[in-house]
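Limitations
The structure tokens in this dataset are predictions for the assembled complex, not deposited experimental models. Users should treat interface geometry with appropriate caution, especially where small molecules or nucleic acid strands are included. An illustrative entry is reproduced here so readers can see what is and is not provided.
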Amino acid sequence: MTIDLSIASLFWMYALMLVPLAVFFYLQLGIIRDTLFALIRMTAQLFLVGFYLKYVFQLNNPLISLLWVAIMLVVANLSILNKAGLRRGVFFWRLLAGVSGSTLFAGGWFILVAIRPDPIYDARYMVPIIGMILGNCLRSNVLSLERFYSGIRKNETEFMTYLMLGANLREAVRPYLRDAIKAAVNPSVATMATMGIVSLPGMMTGQILGGALPMEAIKYQIGIMICIFTSMVLAAIVNIQLSLSVAFDDQQRLKQDILL
Amino acid sequence: MISFEHIILKVQQHTLFNDAMLRMAKGDKVVVRGPSGCGKSSLLKSAVGALPLGGGSIVIDGMELTSATVAGIRSRIAFIGQEPVLGADNVHDALMLPFGFKTHKGNRPSDARIYKTLEQLHLSRDILIKPCKQISGGEKQRIAVARALLLDKNIFLVDEVTSALDPQSREAVMSELFQPGITLLSVSHDPEWINACDRIVEIRDRQLVEVRHDH
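Predicted assembly:
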């Protein structure tokens, strides 16, 4: 088992924050307030999650676990919409469907096909695995949507040219879809290629600290990486496809009021 | 063939046309003139549904431009802007681009037809393997015209299509686009082009005013 961190040890961890804060102060970066605010938010959120998860794991009730997963999906979706600069009112339900579908598909595959815990809805597996996939796909979800819509907006003449040459909407958006998916997954391809040499990934490190054998931990790490990657690609393509009908008007023009 | 009926067109809160009218018969060659920024290019764009109308209607080939007809109308019209977008890495792929779309699949032109079309526009076959990034503006304009000819389009909306052409190339492009079967709505500052058109329309006070009609 892991050595428990006492409150005193945690205090010394907070003390380490003085180093980056001193750098910010020295360079007059003006981000000390934001950093402290983020640190306080992180602390409060993690304590709440720790407290909540303790009960979720104890109860091990599938409905409560699913409710927690649903909350994670909604919060993730709101964050994606905000960061990609897309209007909530227009895209909320479509992206929620895309993000949820891709995350639950990849996470479900890992739990139902590979791990097969007993009971199958064991919160100790379901909640962290779905959470890890979701968290790791956030950036790529934002990137794919942002790249797709900005690509069309910046290349409106080119986009119109495709339509004029006889392309339907799905054919005309294809070059931008390709760019968006490439942009979303490229960093992960690079991460996978260096994993284990340049970095020891979070899940594996956590399991090793938790007392797991390294060979057990790497198998989980491989599994989660494949899930994350699959979910990224699925979410990118499904989100974009689902958003097309609300983002373009009936003459295939990109609506002006869909972006923030 | 092309009718702008009482159109109102606003671009970024700026009214370019208010209750403007223009009717073109099949085979008409019309050039639109006016100071820069008065809406010449926007007029062409509105005819293919690239800009939404604030009022009035546009009828092309007997079809009113609506969501139901826009795809059909676009597939009949060749639209060539000042800096045409070729949309592919090399010239051959740019020429073949539309034939990859469902609408034109199966109509792929033969090599012989491609070579003939290039020749008509004073382009050599060698250009086919050139990257689009390496060809000149004038060549791009002619490749865009060639692509439209390969698609057998007979309505052309062209915006300063001869601006980057030498006299011989301009003559070649004009001899293709001024064929009797082609209906041409154009924007140009080129005196020879303007002379060759049978109708001249000017944009004045957000209206389309005919200043010459040779019929």
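Some entries come with short summary sentences. For this one: The two ends of chain A are 48 Å apart (CA to CA).
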